[in-house]
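Dear colleagues,

As part of the handover before I leave the project, I'm documenting each prediction I ran so the next person doesn't have to rerun anything. This entry is a single chain, and its sequence is reproduced below.
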Amino acid sequence: MAAGGAALAAALVAGAAVLAALLWRRRREAAAGRVCVAVLGDLGRSPRMQYHALSLARHGRGVALLGYLQSRPHGDVLRSGSIRLVPVADLRGLRVGPKLVQYVVKVIVQAIQLLYTMLKMDRPSYILLQNPPGLPSIAVAWVACLFWRSKLIIDWHNYGYTIMSLSHGRNHPLVQIAKWYERLFGRLSDYNLCVTNAMKEDLWVNCNIKAITLYDRPAPYFKETPLELQHQLYMKLAKDYEPFKPRYATESVSSDAEMSAFTEMDEESGHVIKTRGRPALLISSTSWTDYERYINEGVKLPSLVCVITGKGPLKDYYNGLINKLHFKHIQICTPWLEAEDYPLLLGSADLGVCLHKSSSGLDLPMKVVDMFGCCLPVCAIYFECLHELVKHDENGLIFRDSNELAEQLKMLFLGFPTLEGKLHNFRKNLRASKQLRWDESWDQTVLPLLGQNE
């Protein structure tokens, strides 16, 4: 037994020595411009980090894109020969004792798991890390950078402690610890990016962290959708979702013609036309009770198809509530969309409604950025710094409660689908704005940062 134990101990020591030697050898290897883009979250639902990876690959960098593989990343990421996906297992099923103990154990296990995954990779020149979530990823990335002698770049999307405070309250001990941790380890980074000028100022004043603002910008595939592609998308969705099916067949179109609720194929010319009396298409997630009341009162408003995109832990709960509603003029649809179909749907819609409220008041809703890329006007709920994106009465409207939103919808859709009025003017303004796209913005802001030490 003793001999066996000694042999096992010797084997473990030998294995550890070999592992240490391999890691040391790889530590000494040239970084060759590699970058680890990391997020302790679902890669498929982290578009900004995917954009970072694509921009790096476009400039000849090898990229390790690290995170959870719960949702499928965009096809451009999957097709890139320069981007390698590095999966991290999600530990949300961990259950040990009281909730506080569960959380502490999860953070410790995540830290070990993340550090092990990072040290297995080829040595990068930089680790570009999304925050939040930053606990424990900021500390782990800093340790990995010390080992690799690499540079740490934090991309501040928000503050993790403010998100935590939504469920625990700002004065909860865990929130205060998270706040202290975020500010301490945030200062250990080499460079910092952030999403708004308001956050840039807050990072400097309250955290002594100097950051560069890199606004979210739409990717090239967020644009207005041609009518033919709209029709193909509607026909595809009509197979599974009732609101996209035709309401009725017009006299000029036979019953077996190719039709959706919004478009139809002209049998003689083969061209796609918009259906007469079509409903308005909204991308949103809200209640439309007041809008329904306006229609019942005889106001000249179109029927609505409200599409709620995305997913979350409460989606089934809200689907149950939606199914209990009995609207006459409004249909609510919660489709599952492939990554490539989402921009097409945005580019086909008539109006977007955003209910995003920032936990810190310092970040901006990326969904609105994508909508503006598709020249889609927006109604958005007010919060601090929203003015950096939504210009009231220029590219959309800002509301503060459901009554104000209902009045805005009434005003925007009066006489729909006329090519006059505010809704049309907002779209014209978005088309004329020639907004900066992600690639140009990234090249101007991040590319010079990466070239400082190489």
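The mean pLDDT is 83. The chain is about 40% helix and 15% strand.

All the best with the project,
I.
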